[in-house]
Amino acid sequence: MSIVVRDVREHELDSVLALNNAAGPAILPLDAGRLRQFYENAEYFRVAERDGTIAGFMIGMGSNAEYDSSNFRWFRKHFPDFFYIDRIVVASRRRGGGVGRAFYADAQSYAELRYPQMACEVFLDQGANDPVLLFHGSFGFREVGQHVMPGNELRAAMLMKELSCHAWVRKTYGSELPEVPWTRRRVLPARPAAQAAPRPTGTTGP
């Protein structure tokens, strides 16, 4: 069956959390509180559905997000405007079936309407990372530096991809994109007016 990429739903957060924490050392663990913060604040939080079950998820945000990840801060120090892929997780039984490529194609379709570049990182100290780097290279990412995360001393290759369509979109439409379903931003869940927006914490990898 085909892969459907869509916005996450609240009742799916437990499944997303289980997927994340079963992904192995290439993905940093999450707790329910941090995942809730992503759900309430991340502009891009989508799942891939195949055969009626969740096959993976991806979380992303723009460079103006309030996020204290050291990897995110590294990108913001070196680049003024970008879309950051915080993490992508594909269920082990679905790896190699095109879910990862479906996510990156969807994320690029979203990002190139709004940002000139797309950023992510790949950990270099987790054993066999060559297939992951090759995957990103085949999708047009290039290494623009390396960063060692404080606290756990994990080294990451910092990857960036130019989004060539962005300049044309910005010149043609400015900040007013056509009102069609595929150009819309994710609708964030409503919170009481007095409740301050929580700030995502922690650091992650793709």
From TrEMBL:
PROSITE patterns: GNAT. It comes from the Bacteria. Coiled coil: none annotated. Residues 3-164 form the N-acetyltransferase domain. InterPro entries: Acyl_CoA_acyltransferase (IPR016181), GNAT_dom (IPR000182). One of its GO terms (molecular function) is acyltransferase activity, transferring groups other than amino-acyl groups. SUPFAM superfamilies: Acyl-CoA N-acyltransferases (Nat). This is N-acetyltransferase domain-containing protein. It comes from Lysobacter spongiicola DSM 21749. The lineage of its organism: Bacteria, Pseudomonadati, Pseudomonadota, Gammaproteobacteria, Lysobacterales.
